């Protein structure tokens, strides 16, 4: 089998090998028949797992590489698929079954390609030919993954997984049970692409049955001293438990099929209308069950309920695009009844999410609800979301909104929820003319809301900047508020117009002096410094060129005082990743300033370069932290690209000395990234052709060649040689006549005769391919001479 698999992995064969493929096809069918007969009679438990893996790999290669040949030669591929079907579902859960599901997925991909392209004999492959077998595969997958029909095997797998303490995982450390579920969902989604109506007619009734089972759990909740408790020992609960266990998988499956309800092709409106009823019923059921779960408050009392809750939120998120399409259809129809129905659905959605933000619920539920609210605000850009009773009530009373936000128990939930409210106020409504966007009203509400949101921060800052030990409550308020407001910048980095971005930033500018005060007064508090620097990074990332000269100057000066070489070096030499990240964020702030290419940026550039040369580089050269190094050299590259006047300044040789240092490091990632930065600089500034680069050319080439000859970076040989060629292409004479003899003379471990021979035999071709081949040969010969001499010295 291993030999056959090696042959099948080759895609190119002579034209006259049809007899070989006929024999191969026949052999595959015979083998599968034998295995399936064994499975029918004895099962596959005693069969060698290695042999089963080879069979599965054989089928995978056959389908991926050679299905087109079988179709063109008119082989009975239906028979092979029937045997594959028998083989697949005779396998137990595990790697082999997952690989068989991948074989089916590969066949579906082949079928999709063949339906869109003409095959060699001019015929189209019709998916209807394979509909019976694919629909049978779908039914068997649903059977095999269902606790209602396959409870014994599935419960045994889950018990075995628990006892194995997660050792039964794939290479990505995903449990094999979960891996099989993912493969099943991906395959069913592919089948649904061919036969959407047929798949939905099978899946939808099943999921409705599970919805009913979950709804019935309301009757199984009893009151106890500790609060509501789900009676898990009742006969009714044990009866519906298999349906509850099936619900997470079906929710994930239906979520993966969400695009079937709002297709983006030419028939999108027809498809939306045809399947509107099913999508609406599904979403209403999901919302109802989510509300039931929030009301009962028993999510954490059974593992399956935790899984259901997470997948209910995921299902709503998956149908956010459908809601966005619904919004567009309603606007285009101009039908008041449809508009009322849509507004009611949006209102119900926000009401359910508000119930899931109740403080008595688990933190994870609250966090998921806030994140889902943000996802809807991003995707369903509609006035209905703004006018929903829950949203409108908060926006009309900013103080109450802030109190509600601060009542959320988790900073991630607060950050997501604040960003969601701001999104409803600042994103552009879909399909609504500019004059009806209500900007003045929405901007006014945004101003009131954001001022209330950051007011606690402004009140808390004096406690931290007045000296002494600040109250813990004030520190917590500052950290949480910076995270909340900073999260807003992430949402509006590039998704809004400049006018809206200006409004966003204008109303947050009063907060900036307080942040700078924190940086100055709390320099010995790593948490405060990290939060303030992160906030400034998010602000600059959103503002870009819309920053004041005063803010830029204060940011650069405070950062220069904060990140001195003496303070930075111990931080980089420590194992504290969060402090490393803070330094990296400050460097990215400097890069944002440099890239604005404005008058303010040009004025700040000398100070930024001074900080790079006197503060950052001396510390970085002693502490090789790759992420901080990467950000630092990206800053230098941005300075050269955005301010090309640097090429004629005295700072340019110093900048390039730092690049030369980096190319001499034994760090593959750093060398590779900086080679890419040099290439980008040359692409955008024609660097290698400038007079400023002339005196530095052979210094850089020397560093690159020594990297090849003296360090174990042979994996980068092609990239290094390509860079040397680009630097040399207009100065080949100087390279061959001046640089190469000098370089060889400075190489240790060579005799005079070897040095002369290396220079004399070096190829002089000037095309890229020959130059690369010759230079690599030169490096290999030089290293060989060194090793030979070293061995001779040892033998003496």
Short description:
With 796 residues, the protein is mostly helical. The two termini are 54 Å apart.
Could you list some keywords that capture this structure?
single chain; 796 residues; mainly alpha; two-stranded antiparallel ribbon; 2 strands; globular
Distance between the termini: 54 Å
Count of strand segments: 2
Major β-sheet strand ordering: 1-2
Overall geometry comes to globular
**Estimated helix fraction:** over 70%
Largest sheet: 2 strands, antiparallel
The percentage of residues in β strands lies in under 5%
Name the structural class. Answer: mainly alpha
List unreliable stretches of 5+ residues: 119-123, 163-168
| Overall pLDDT metric | 85
Q: What can you tell me about this protein's structure?
A:
- The protein is mainly alpha-helical.
- Among the domains are: 176 residues, no CATH class; 173 residues, no CATH class; 118 residues, no CATH class.
- Helix content is 74%, strand content 1%.
- It has 37 helices and 2 strands.
- Helix 5 packs parallel to helix 8.
- The radius of gyration is 33 Å and the shape is globular.
């Amino acid at each position: 089998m291993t030999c056959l698999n090696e042959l099948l992995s080759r895609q190119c064969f002579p034209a006259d090998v049809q007899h070989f493929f006929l024999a191969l096809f026949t052999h595959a069918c015979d083998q599968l028949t034998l295995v399936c007969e064994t499975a029918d009679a004895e099962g596959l438990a005693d069969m060698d797992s290695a042999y089963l893996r080879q069979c599965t790999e054989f089928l995978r290669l056959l389908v991926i590489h050679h299905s087109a040949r079988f179709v063109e030669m008119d082989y009975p591929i239906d028979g092979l698929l029937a045997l594959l079907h028998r083989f697949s579902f005779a396998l137990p859960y595990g790697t082999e079954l997952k690989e068989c599901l991948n074989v089916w997925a590969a066949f579906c991909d082949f079928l999709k390609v063949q339906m869109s392209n003409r095959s060699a004999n001019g015929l189209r492959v019709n998916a209807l030919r394979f509909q019976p077998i694919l629909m049978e595969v779908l039914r068997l997958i649903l059977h095999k993954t269902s606790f209602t029909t396959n409870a014994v095997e599935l419960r045994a797998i889950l018990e075995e997984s628990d006892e194995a303490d997660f050792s039964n995982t794939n290479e990505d450390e995903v449990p094999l049970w979960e891996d099989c579920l993912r493969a099943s969902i991906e395959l069913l989604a592919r089948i649904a692409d061919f036969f959407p109506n047929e798949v939905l007619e099978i899946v939808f009734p099943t999921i409705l049955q599970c919805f009913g089972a979950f709804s019935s759990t309301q009757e199984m909740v009893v009151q106890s001293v500790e609060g509501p408790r789900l009676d898990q020992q009742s006969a009714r609960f044990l009866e519906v438990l298999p349906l509850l266990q099936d619900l997470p998988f079906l929710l994930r499956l239906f979520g993966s099929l969400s695009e079937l309800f709002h297709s983006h092709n030419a028939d999108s409106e027809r498809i939306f209308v045809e399947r509107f009823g099913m999508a609406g019923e599904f979403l209403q059921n999901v919302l109802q069950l989510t509300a039931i779960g929030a009301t009962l408050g028993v999510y954490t009392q059974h593992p399956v309920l935790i899984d259901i809750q997470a997948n209910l939120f995921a299902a709503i998120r998956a149908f956010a695009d459908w809601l966005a399409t619904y919004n567009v259809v309603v606007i285009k129809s101009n039908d008041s009844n449809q508009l009322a129905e849509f507004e009611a659905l949006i209102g119900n959605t926000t009401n359910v999410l508000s119930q899931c933000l109740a403080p008595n619920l688990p933190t994870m539920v609250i966090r998921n609800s806030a994140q889902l609210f943000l996802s809807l605000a991003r995707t369903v850009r509609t006035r209905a979301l703004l006018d929903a009773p829950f949203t409108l009530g908060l926006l009309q009373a900013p103080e109450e909104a802030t109190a509600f936000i601060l009542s959320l128990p988790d900073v991630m939930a607060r950050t997501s929820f604040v960003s969601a409210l701001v999104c409803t106020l600042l994103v552009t409504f879909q399909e609504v003319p500019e004059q009806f966007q209500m900007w003045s009203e929405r901007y006014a509400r945004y101003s009131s809301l954001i001022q209330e949101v950051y007011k606690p921060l402004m009140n808390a800052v004096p406690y931290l900047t007045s000296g002494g030990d600040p109250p813990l409550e004030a520190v917590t308020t500052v950290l949480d508020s910076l995270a909340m407001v900073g999260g807003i910048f992430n949402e509006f980095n590039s998704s809004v117009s400049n006018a809206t971005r200006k409004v966003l930033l204008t109303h947050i500018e009063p907060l900036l002096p307080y942040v700078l005060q924190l940086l100055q007064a709390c320099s010995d508090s790593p948490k405060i410094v990290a939060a303030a620097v992160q906030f400034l990074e998010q602000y600059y990332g959103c503002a870009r060129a819309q920053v004041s000269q005063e803010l830029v100057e204060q940011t650069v000066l405070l950062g220069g005082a904060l990140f001195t070489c003496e303070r930075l070096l111990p931080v980089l030499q420590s194992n504290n990743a969060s402090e490393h990240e803070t330094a990296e964020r400050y460097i990215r702030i400097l890069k944002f300033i440099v890239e604005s290419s404005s008058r303010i940026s040009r004025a700040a550039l000398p100070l930024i370069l001074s900080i790079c040369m006197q503060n950052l580089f001396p510390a970085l050269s002693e502490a090789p932290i790759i992420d901080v190094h990467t950000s630092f050299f990206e800053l230098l590259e941005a300075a050269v690209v955005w301010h090309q006047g640097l090429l004629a300044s005295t700072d340019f040789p110093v900048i390039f000395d730092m690049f030369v240092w980096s190319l001499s490091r034994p760090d593959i990632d750093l060398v590779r990234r900086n080679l890419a930065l040099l290439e980008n600089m040359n692409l955008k500034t024609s660097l290698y052709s400038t007079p400023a680069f002339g005196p530095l050319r052979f210094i850089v080439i020397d560093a690159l060649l020594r990297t090849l000859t003296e360090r174990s970076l042979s994996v980068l040989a092609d990239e290094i040689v390509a860079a040397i060629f680009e630097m040399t292409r207009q100065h080949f004479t100087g390279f061959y006549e001046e640089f190469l003899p000098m370089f060889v003379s400075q190489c240790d471990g060579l005799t005079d005769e070897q040095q002369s021979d290396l220079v004399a035999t070096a190829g002089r071709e000037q095309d890229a391919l020959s130059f690369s081949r010759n230079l690599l040969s030169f490096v290999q010969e030089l290293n060989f001479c060194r090793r030979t001499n070293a061995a001779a010295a040892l033998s003496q």
